[in-house]
Amino acid sequence: xxxxxxxxxxxxxxxxxxxxxxxxxxxxxxLSYEDLENGQRKPDVDMLSKLPDILGESVDFLIxxxxxxxxxxxxxxxxxxxxxxYVVSExxxxxxxxxxxxxxxKLTQYQIDAHTNITKEYISDMLKIKAEQREFRDRxxxxxxxxxxxxxxxxxxxxxxxxxxxxxxxxxLSEYYPPLTSIDWRLSYLKSSYPPKLx
Length: 199
What we know:
Layout: H1 2-14, H2 19-26, H3 30-37, H4 45-55, H5 59-63, H6 70-103, H7 109-146, H8 152-171, H9 173-176, H10 183-193
Helix pairs in contact: 2-3, 6-7, 6-8
């Protein structure tokens, strides 16, 4: 019950509520509610069913089944998305380099310039995504570290999940993002995407 009591107080304070306000919503005396926060009283099912609406977080978070509150879960999702975006951009640059080396003699100067521009765009995207990664990772860790009874395993698992995601996406990229396998298609893509400018 230590986790429940600590997180109950944490969420109450985060929501800028007084003990009497939550006590009133739970139909308890202020002293009875304070016993919940002090670990002197166990919550019943009725109390647990009301707390998510009052505090805006799940019972799983309150009792320690998960260490992620809603905002942590959001930051984690954004962090993982940025990881995937980086891997995909990196792969697209490799593909562009392959087609460029395989068919340089078939490309016009305009197509070579177009290839260079596309590659620059991907590199620019990668730099933005990398900055987003750092931002969401920092926000996630900063927020998690404020949560009472945060498990060290949770913090370790974040980096493990990122590594697993990178491995999964890298080894099965074609399942998630079909590769640009046709040289002719890629050449036609360059032509259609970057038509020559008319004087």
